[in-house]
TrEMBL record:
Leader sequence segment: none
The entry's keywords: Coiled coil, Disulfide bond, Endoplasmic reticulum, Glycoprotein, Glycosyltransferase, Golgi apparatus, Manganese, Membrane, Metal-binding, Signal-anchor, Transferase, Transmembrane, Transmembrane helix
Protein's organism: Esox lucius (Northern pike)
Segments crossing the lipid bilayer: 32-54
E.C. number(s) listed in UniProt: 2.4.1.224
Official protein name in the record: Exostosin-2
Enzyme class: transferase
C-alpha cells in the first residue's frame, strides 16, 4: 500500500532532490506566449521610466541664440489694425491670483522652466516695425543668458514662465498700441498669465510713468523704475537700470576706508532746485563735497559721456566716483537711474533721494547695509546725516556696495538671473535662498557661523567660550570681573567692549594678567546693542555676555553654566531669571523681577548663548527694536530673549540658585533693576516688543539646572562644582 502511494506520487509529479515539482510543466506554445507578453510589458515599463527620469539633454541642442537666428531672417508677422489689445496691467495681481503655479509642477531640482518665444519681426499693416530699434544688444544678452541657464527649456509644454522675444526694455523706442497687439498674438499669451516682461526705461514725456505703459494684461513686470504706486508687491520684480559703462569700463575694487571727498554728485540732468541746494551745501562744506556737471567745452559723443567737469577741471567718469565715500543719486525724469549702478561699481555708498522709489531687488536685498535713503525734503540736512554714520559702518557699507554690484548689477545676465531667482523662490519657498545667502558677501564669516538649531547635540568642549564684557568706566569692578572669569577652565578669550567715547581705556600695563587673550574693542557710539555686535574677534561658538559689575559669580558657577549650554546650544543659558506677566487690570504685559516659581527670561548681564544670535540681533531684529533699545538705553537683554524665543520656540534655562550677582558698592539699592521707574520702562519694553513681533514668543518654565550632588552631604572633593552660591 505504501509502495503504491509512493509510486503514485512519482507518477503524478516530478520528484527531484529539491523536492516535488508542485506546478505542472507548461505547454511549450503557451510558455513562449507568456514569455513574449512579459518581455513586451517589461520593455514598456523600462521605456516609460527612462522617459520620465532620464535627463532631458535635448533642451541644450536648440538653445535660443541670435548666433543661429538672425533678426533679419526672422519671420515677418503683420499686425492687422483690428488685432486685440490686452487690458492695461492689473494692479491687484498677486502670485495667487494672476499666476498659475500648477503649470510649474513638481521639479526635483526646485527650478522653474522658462520658455523664450521664437524671434519674429512684428510690423503693422503698412510694414512699419513696432520698434524703432529692433532687438537691442542688452535684450539679446539677457535672452542669451536665460537660454544658457538651467532655467531654460525649449519644450513649451514644460514651461512655467514665458519670456517674449519682443524687446520692451526702452519704452522710448516702442509704438505702444502695436507692441501690445504683438504681445496678444503670442500663442500662449492667455491674458498674460505666467508671462514675464523686462523693462528698464518706462514712461515718456511729459509725465514719465513709473511702469511700462504698454497694456500687458496679467503679465509680470521686471521693471527699472517702480514707485510705490505702480509696484505690485510680491508679484512684480524691481530691477536696476543697466549702465552701459558696466561693459565698457573696468574699475578695480578699492579697499574700504576714507576717500578724498566725503560727498560727490555726478549727475548732469538734475532739477535746478536740487542743483541749487547742492551748491549751497558745497559752499558750506568746501572741499568735502565735489559737485560735478557735464563738460560744456567738450564735443558731444561717447567720449564726453565719460567725462565730468567742475569749474573747468575735467574728471574721468565713472573713475572719479571711487574718490568719494558717498555719492548722490537723485531722481531724474524717471525714478530709476543708471547712476546707481555706476556708484555701486565704484564702491561708493549711494545716497538715494527719490521719494517712493522701489529699490532694485528690494524684496531680497537689505539696502540699509549698502545705501543711505534720505527723503528729498531732507536734502539740506544731507551732510549732517551722513556725518553721523560711524566710520566702521561706512567701511562695511563700502564693502557691501561693491559686492551688490558684482552679484546683481554687473551685467544683463546678473540682472536677469536675479529676477528669475526671486520668482523661483516665490514658487518653491521651501527651497528659497535665505537672507544671509542674498545679502552676505563671502568676506563676511557667516560660512563659519552655524545656526545652533543644526549643531551636533553637544558641541565639543575644547573650543571653550568667549567672554564679552560691556563696560563704560567702572575700572575697579571691571578688573575684578576679568580676574574672576579668567579662573574658568573653558575660557578661550576675553573681549572687553569699551563703550565710552569720551574716555580712553586704561593702559595695557594696568590690565590684569590672565592666561588667555584679552582684547579691547572701542565702540564709535555708546549703544547697548554693541554688546551683541558680531565682532570678528569672537571665534568660538559659545559667548558669555557679562556686565562689568557681576563679580559674585564663581568660576564653578560659570563653568557649570557653560556645560549646560553645551547640552542646549540653541537656548539662552543664564543666571538672573525674570518673568513676564499679564496684568488683567491694565490689560497689558508687565515685567516681574521678584522671586517666583517661574522664569521666562534670563538677563544677558550674565548669560551664555550661541554667537549666531549676534548676527540675528544685529541684522535681522524685527522692526525698529534695535534702534528703540539704543535710544532708550534699556532692554537689550529683553530684546535678545524675544529674538531667541521667537526663533527656537523654546524657553531659556536658568542655572544655579543664586539671586544676587552685583557688588553692593557698584549701584545703590542693589542695582538699577529694583528702581520703580526702571521697572515701568521694562514693562513698556515687553509691550513694545510684543507689538513688533506680533505675538508673545516668551515661554514660561518652572525649573532650573543645578549640578548633581551640589547640595548633598558629600565631601567637597567628590563634587564637580563645589563652589555654587545659594543666593
Amino acid at each position: 500500500m505504501i509502495k503504491h502511494c509512493l509510486l503514485s506520487m512519482c507518477a503524478s509529479g516530478k520528484y527531484t532532490s529539491r523536492g516535488p515539482a508542485l506546478i505542472p510543466r507548461m505547454k511549450t506554445k503557451h510558455r513562449i506566449y507568456y514569455i513574449t507578453l512579459f518581455s513586451v510589458v517589461l520593455l514598456g515599463l523600462i521605456a516609460t521610466g527612462m522617459f520620465q527620469f532620464w535627463p532631458h539633454s535635448i533642451e541644450s541642442t536648440a538653445e535660443w541664440s541670435l548666433d543661429r537666428r538672425s533678426v533679419h531672417d526672422a519671420p515677418l508677422v503683420r499686425l492687422p489694425v483690428s488685432s486685440p489689445i490686452p487690458e492695461r496691467g492689473d494692479l491687484s495681481c498677486r502670485m495667487h491670483t494672476c499666476f498659475d503655479v500648477y503649470r510649474c509642477g513638481y521639479n526635483p531640482k526646485n527650478r522653474i522652466k522658462v520658455y523664450i518665444y521664437p524671434l519674429q519681426r512684428f510690423v503693422d499693416e503698412v510694414g512699419v516695425p513696432i520698434s524703432s530699434t529692433g532687438l537691442s544688444r542688452e535684450y539679446n544678452d539677457l535672452l542669451s543668458a536665460i537660454s544658457d541657464s538651467d532655467f531654460y527649456t525649449d519644450d513649451v509644454t514644460r514651461a512655467c514662465l514665458f519670456v517674449p522675444s519682443i524687446d520692451v526694455l526702452n519704452q522710448n523706442s516702442l509704438r505702444i498700441r502695436e507692441t501690445a497687439q504683438a504681445l496678444a498674438m503670442l500663442p500662449r499669451w492667455d491674458k498674460g498669465m505666467n508671462h514675464l516682461l523686462f523693462n528698464m526705461l518706462p514712461g515718456g514725456p511729459p509725465d514719465y510713468s513709473t511702469a511700462l505703459d504698454v497694456p500687458r494684461d496679467r503679465a509680470l513686470l521686471a521693471g527699472g523704475g517702480f514707485s510705490t504706486w505702480t509696484y505690485r508687491q510680491g508679484y512684480d520684480v524691481s530691477i536696476p537700470v543697466y549702465s552701459p559703462l558696466s561693459a565698457d569700463v573696468e574699475l578695480p575694487e578699492k579697499q574700504p576706508g576714507p576717500r578724498r571727498y566725503f560727498i560727490l554728485s555726478s549727475q548732469t540732468a538734475i532739477h535746478r532746485e536740487y542743483r541749487a541746494e547742492l551748491e549751497r551745501l558745497k559752499e558750506e562744506n568746501g572741499e568735502a563735497l565735489l559737485l560735478l556737471d557735464k563738460c560744456s567745452n567738450l564735443s558731444q559723443g561717447a567720449a564726453s559721456a565719460r567725462k565730468r567737469c567742475y569749474k573747468g577741471q575735467v574728471f574721468d567718469y565713472p573713475q572719479i566716483l571711487q574718490e568719494s565715500s558717498f555719492c548722490v543719486v537723485l531722481r531724474g525724469a524717471r525714478l530709476g537711474q543708471a547712476t546707481l549702478s555706476d556708484v555701486l561699481q565704484a564702491g561708493c555708498i549711494p545716497v538715494i533721494l527719490a521719494d517712493s522709489y522701489i529699490l532694485p531687488f528690494s524684496e531680497v536685498l537689505d539696502w540699509k547695509r549698502a545705501s543711505v535713503v534720505i527723503p528729498e525734503e531732507k536734502l539740506p540736512e544731507m551732510y549732517t546725516i551722513l556725518k553721523s554714520i560711524p566710520h566702521r559702518q561706512v567701511e562695511e557699507m563700502q564693502r557691501q556696495t561693491r559686492w551688490f554690484w558684482d552679484a546683481y548689477f554687473s551685467s544683463m545676465k546678473a540682472i536677469g538671473m536675479t529676477a528669475l531667482e526671486i520668482i523661483n523662490d516665490r514658487i518653491y519657498p521651501y527651497a528659497a535662498r535665505t537672507y544671509e545667502q542674498w545679502n552676505n558677501p563671502p568676506v563676511v564669516k557667516w560660512s563659519s557661523v552655524n545656526s545652533p538649531l543644526f549643531l551636533p547635540l553637544i558641541p565639543p568642549r575644547s573650543p571653550g567660550f568667549t567672554a564679552v564684557v560691556l563696560t563704560y568706566d567702572r575700572i575697579e569692578s571691571l578688573f575684578r570681573v576679568i580676574t574672576e572669569i579668567s579662573k574658568v577652565p573653558s575660557l578661550a578669550k576675553l573681549l572687553v567692549v569699551w563703550n565710552n567715547q569720551n574716555k580712553s581705556p586704561p593702559e595695557e600695563s594696568l590690565w590684569p594678567k590672565i592666561a588667555v587673550p584679552l582684547k579691547v574693542v572701542r565702540t564709535k557710539e555708546n549703544k547697548l546693542s554693541n554688546r551683541f555686535f558680531p565682532y570678528d574677534e569672537i571665534e568660538t561658538e559659545a559667548v558669555l555676555a557679562i556686565d562689568d559689575d557681576i563679580i559674585m559669580l564663581t568660576s564653578d558657577e560659570l563653568q557649570f553654566g557653560y556645560e549646560v549650554w553645551r547640552e542646549f546650544p540653541d537656548r539662552l543659558v543664564g543666571y538672573p531669571g525674570r518673568l513676564h506677566l499679564w496684568d488683567h487690570e491694565m490689560g497689558k504685559w508687565k515685567y516681574e523681577s521678584e522671586w517666583t516659581n517661574e522664569v521666562s527670561m534670563v538677563l544677558t548681564g550674565a548669560a551664555f548663548y550661541h554667537k549666531y544670535f549676534n548676527y540675528l540681533y544685529t541684522y535681522k531684529m524685527p522692526g525698529d527694536i534695535k534702534n528703540w533699545v539704543d535710544a532708550h538705553m534699556n532692554c537689550e537683554d529683553i530684546a535678545m530673549n524675544f529674538l531667541v524665543a521667537n526663533i527656537t520656540g523654546k524657553a531659556p534655562i536658568k542655572v544655579t540658585p543664586r539671586k544676587k550677582f552685583k557688588c553692593p558698592e557698584c549701584t545703590a539699592i542693589d542695582g538699577l533693576s529694583l528702581d520703580q521707574t526702571h521697572m515701568v520702562e521694562r514693562s513698556e519694553c515687553i509691550n513694545k516688543f510684543a507689538s513688533v513681533f506680533g505675538t508673545m514668543p516668551l515661554k514660561v518654565v518652572e525649573h532650573r539646572a543645578d549640578p548633581v550632588l551640589y547640595k548633598d552631604d558629600f565631601p567637597e572633593k567628590l563634587k564637580s562644582f563645589p563652589n555654587i552660591g545659594s543666593l
